[in-house]
Amino acid sequence: MDFDREQQRKRAVRTALLLAVATAGCSAPATPPEGDLFREASLALEEESYTTAITSYRKLLEEYPFSDKAEVASLNIAYAHYLKEEYGEAVAAFHDFERLYPVSPLLPFVSYTIGMCWLDQAKDGNRDASASEEALRQFRKVADEYPGTLYGDLAVFRQAQARENL
């Protein structure tokens, strides 16, 4: 009797060990720390690896949605799209930023860069005046909402460029 009980105990231990080893390889990879994700994304943006930067910032936002770095990550996603000349995605991401952070001190930059997205599209030799009209509208908004600021002053200058395109 003791021999059978000992055999059952050994089989149970072996089974438990096999299950532990088998499931160890199936676990999800550990999420990198928040600071590591942010550094990786920021370095990619600095090195002009915009796709990597966007992916890393998005992962940061997914894994750490309430991070104190979320606002900058959200802005940098939009800015990376702009630098990558993905103007439609940039405008959408900048509008998302405005919706998520309605009192951010970064809003003058956001509004101005939306105008630049439209102005840069108009420079592509497109005969459609809608991009220039949208740029002009956006720059007027920036100049009206942020007078006397760097971006307000730049917007006044860019309005002249948008008018020239028309």
Explain this structure:
There is one protein chain. The protein is mainly α and 166 residues long. Helices cover 76% and strands 0% of the residues. The chain has helices at residues 2-24, 34-46, 50-63, 70-83, 87-100, 107-122, 130-145, 150-165. The termini are far apart.
List keywords for this structure.
single chain, 0% strand, elongated
Strand count:
0
Structural class: mainly alpha
Strand content: under 5%
Distance between the termini: 97 Å
* Gyration radius, in Å: 26 Å
Largest sheet: none
Residue ranges: pLDDT <50 for 5 or more in a row?
16-24
* Cα shape: elongated
Order of helices and strands: HHHHHHHH
Helical coverage, percent range: over 70%
Number of helices: 8
The overall pLDDT average reads: 88
Oligomer: single chain
Summarize the structure in short:
Helix 4 (70-83) runs antiparallel to helix 5 (87-100) and helix 5 packs antiparallel against helix 6. The protein has helices at 2-24, 34-46, 50-63, 70-83, 87-100, 107-122, 130-145, 150-165. The chain is mostly helical and 166 residues long.
What's the topology here?
Blueprint: H1 2-24, H2 34-46, H3 50-63, H4 70-83, H5 87-100, H6 107-122, H7 130-145, H8 150-165
Helix pairs in contact: 2-3, 3-4, 4-5, 5-6, 6-7, 6-8, 7-8
